Amino acid sequence: MPKNKTNDSNRLSQVVADARRHMQDREKTYREKALKMYPHVCGRCGREFSGKQLRELTVHHRDHNHDNNPPDGSNWELLCIYCHDNEHGRLEVAESYDNHSPSKEKSADSDFSHKPFAALEALLKSKGGDDADH
C-alpha cells in the first residue's frame, strides 16, 4: 500500500511541476512581448525601470484573465510589483464587499426592540407647560 501512495505523490508532484513550467513559459512569452511594446514605466505610479530593476515591472491583465493575451497587447499594462499588488488587493477587497453586503444580509440584531426615546413624547406632554418656564 505505501507504494501506491508514493506513486500518487510522484504523479502529483509531476503534474504540479508541469503546470508551473507551463505558466512560467506562457508568462515569459507575453512578458517579453509587453516589454517590447510598452515603455518601461509603471502605468500607475509612473516610475521608470531599467537594468536589473526591470524585473520589478510586471504585466497586469486588465480583465484579470491570464489566458487573454491578444497579439496587440490591449489586455496588458505594465505595473511595478507594488502597484500590481495594490491592484489585485483592491479587487479582493471589492469582491469581499460584494459577497458580504450589509443590505443583502439581515443579522439577528438588526431588528432593534429597545427604543430608548419611545416614552419621551409622553413624558414631555405630561410635564406640559413646566418646561416652558425654564
UniProtKB/TrEMBL annotation:
The keyword Nuclease is annotated on this UniProt entry: yes
Top-level taxon of the source organism: Bacteria
One Pfam family this sequence matches: HNH
Signal peptide as annotated in the record: none
Domain HNH nuclease per the UniProt entry, residue ranges: 29-85
GO terms, molecular function: endonuclease activity; hydrolase activity; nucleic acid binding; zinc ion binding
Alphabetized UniProt keyword annotations: Endonuclease, Hydrolase, Nuclease
InterPro entries (alphabetical): HNH (IPR002711), HNH_nuc (IPR003615)
Protein name: Putative HNH nuclease YajD
